[in-house]
Design goal:
alpha+beta; single chain; four-stranded antiparallel β-sheet; 62% helix
Length: 172
């Protein structure tokens, strides 16, 4: 795949992930306001929550710090997308970037107390775990897939090296 096409697909993934995240958050604001909840499964419901901290509502009140870290992460991911030659890796960076931007936009555009002071909208409530949103799903699943990809690439590189070593002439 050419570099231009790879970057176009990555941009579509970022915009698609960001759009889906923002649409679902807008839906949550409209449907779940005034303490309304929607039961989905016995331990899963849609319930509006606001997060001023890190993911899964940890570090409450650290929104500015989190926002600065996310800005740095977004710049890093953008550079990686431009540099990356492998399509799968580029797509995974784009998935993570789309999620990170989704939550960053909340911090920027929902800010009442200064830059990056906005709270992230969460609404997927797994009662035994945490409350999160679509952007969080993209970031977490993208990171998990990235680690799995790294393991697969490492294994295939190792297997190739072992095969080449096994076929090498011992006299050389």
């Amino acid at each position: 795949m050419t570099g231009g096409r790879r970057l176009t697909y990555a941009a579509l993934i970022v915009v698609g992930g960001l759009g889906l995240d923002q649409l679902t958050k807008e839906w949550a604001l409209n449907r779940l306001s005034e303490n309304r909840t929607i039961d989905v499964l016995p331990t899963l419901e849609f319930d509006l929550a606001y997060n001023s901290g890190f993911s899964f509502s940890t570090g409450s009140g650290q929104g500015n710090l989190v926002g600065l870290i996310v800005i740095a992460l977004c710049v890093f991911l953008f550079v990686q997308i431009i540099r990356e030659a492998r399509w799968r890796r580029c797509a995974l960076y784009a998935v993570i970037l789309g999620g990170a931007l989704g939550n960053l936009l909340d911090r920027i555009f929902r800010a009442d107390d200064g830059f990056l002071s906005g709270e992230v909208i969460d609404f997927i409530d797994v009662s035994w775990y945490a409350v999160f949103n679509v952007a969080d799903i993209f970031v977490v699943c993208g990171c998990i897939a990235f680690v799995l990809d790294e393991v697969l690439v490492h294994r295939s590189t190792r297997d190739l090296a072992e095969a080449q070593t096994a076929g090498a002439d011992p006299a050389t």
